[in-house]
Write a structure and sequence with these properties.
It contains 17 helices and 14 strands. By secondary structure, it is an alpha/beta fold. It binds nicotinamide-adenine-dinucleotide and uridine-5'-diphosphate-glucose.
Amino acid sequence: MKSMKVAVIGTGYVGLTTGVTLAYLGHQVTCVDVDPAKLALLRQGKAPIYEPGLEELMELARANLRYTDQYAEAVPEAEVVFIAVGTPSLPDGSPDLQYVRAAARGIGEHLGNGFCVVVNKSTVPIGSGNWVESLVREAYEGRYGRKCRGQFAVASNPEFLREGSAIHDSLYPDRIVVGAEDPKALEVLYNLYRPLIEQSFPAPTFAPRPERMEAVPLITADLASAELIKYAANAFLSVKISFINEIANLAERVGADISQVARGIGLDNRIGTRFLQAGVGWGGSCFGKDTAALIATGQEYGLAMPIVQAAREVNYRQRERMVEKLQRELKILKGRTIGLLGLAFKPNTDDLRDAPALDIARRLIERGAWVRAHDPVALDNARRSYPDLPITYYEDPLALAEEADALLLVTEWSQYRKLDWPAMAQAMRRPLLVDGRNFLDRRALLQAGFRYVGVGVGEQEASEVQPVAEG
Ligand SMILES: NC(=O)c1ccc[n+]([C@@H]2O[C@H](COP(=O)([O-])OP(=O)(O)OC[C@H]3O[C@@H](n4cnc5c(N)ncnc54)[C@H](O)[C@@H]3O)[C@@H](O)[C@H]2O)c1
Ligand SMILES: O=c1ccn([C@@H]2O[C@H](COP(=O)(O)OP(=O)(O)O[C@H]3O[C@H](CO)[C@@H](O)[C@H](O)[C@H]3O)[C@@H](O)[C@H]2O)c(=O)[nH]1
């Protein structure tokens, strides 16, 4: 394999994972970030985010990795430069492109003499490839006072990793999508990803290769199609989850069980069993932001996108439904103490962006409840990022349960299955558990003395449960 020189701009979830993965594959990678605190941690071999396997892979790839805040130390030599900075939502739903703009300018000002592929890995609106091209060109010409002639080409290479399994998803992707107009750019990126495409690298022990893993398909497309693939994929997954939540809400009314329904439809190969887990609904840094961006793009072109819009409405309404479940059980929320199990938007991450737990906490607080929360890894992030939110944080789930009126499981951390549930029930003022992810063993919880309320499980099931005396 030919080792290539790579620069990655932005060392967040995507940039760092990409940089570390490419370094592990044997490329020489320089990661650039503007955040000195992140760089200080990275230089000590520490990951600034909680992501299983990331620090281990950083250690294995150490010899091929450098970290800097200087574009000049990364870009001039690079054959490939990734833009992996954030694209958060603006109030109108469209993405804030200020970081992409700054990165593109920084790249243009530091382009070297060799041919370089500038790769958009950030999730960016359709047409951003052309826009980035013009920014890089303008910055180059402004800096050097001469025309830019074929020094670079822009490609789109959307990222599909999931937080919590970012290393696994980067080493063993379902597909790699590359959009480019210039065949030279395609060739460079084919060579860059060749070890991944052919799966010719040794699998790290902590991230074993899936059984029956074959070559990874490389999808080549034009720029606009590659950009649209990313938004369409996230929108489709969001629709799938909102769809099952809508059916779950009906299942509750008609006395059906959503887990049976999901399995029954999912085993149809055309539908598939994955992403049919009903519950609190989706959150995280991408689905909310990217569905909003897709709708904003539609508006720009005079096109309504009612399916994507409905997926969002169902999703955000689902959070309110959890509060309604608690209210139905407790009658009055004012003055009650509610313990949230899980704050992160999904397990195995400390990311709180658009986390359903925070939204639910705010709604409960508005109704006068006292909110407590436990999370195995996200408490520090919560304290740091939301200092004004009146939530009491607990390191110990048993202490969280002490004298609480109800628990609401929001994030399906595996350790919650192993809690001492009889002791939790004993500690509570009333042993009520709303399982917002249908994650716990209902029978075991009933045996432990809980009133158990799931999602998408009809009244028939609920009536099997002994009502708990007011106390
Ligand atoms: N998080 C995910 O799971 C995920 C998955 C796929 C795609 N994406 C997309 O990838 C992009 C990055 O997302 P993320 O979650 O990694 O973001 P992030 O916020 O975790 O990281 C962005 C990083 O870029 C740095 N940065 C900002 N401006 C910079 C500049 N001018 N020069 C250098 N560094 C700069 C920030 O300091 C930060 O460390 C977004 O467009 C997102 O939609 C994210
Ligand atoms: O059946 C399911 C599956 C997921 N979720 C929720 O959906 C959200 C998103 O989960 P997941 O997709 O696993 O995590 P992300 O890290 O947000 O990854 C999504 O967003 C990334 C950013 O664009 C993409 O790269 C990934 O492909 C895409 O899965 C979380 O709140 C989950 O709890 C459900 O409620 N039910």
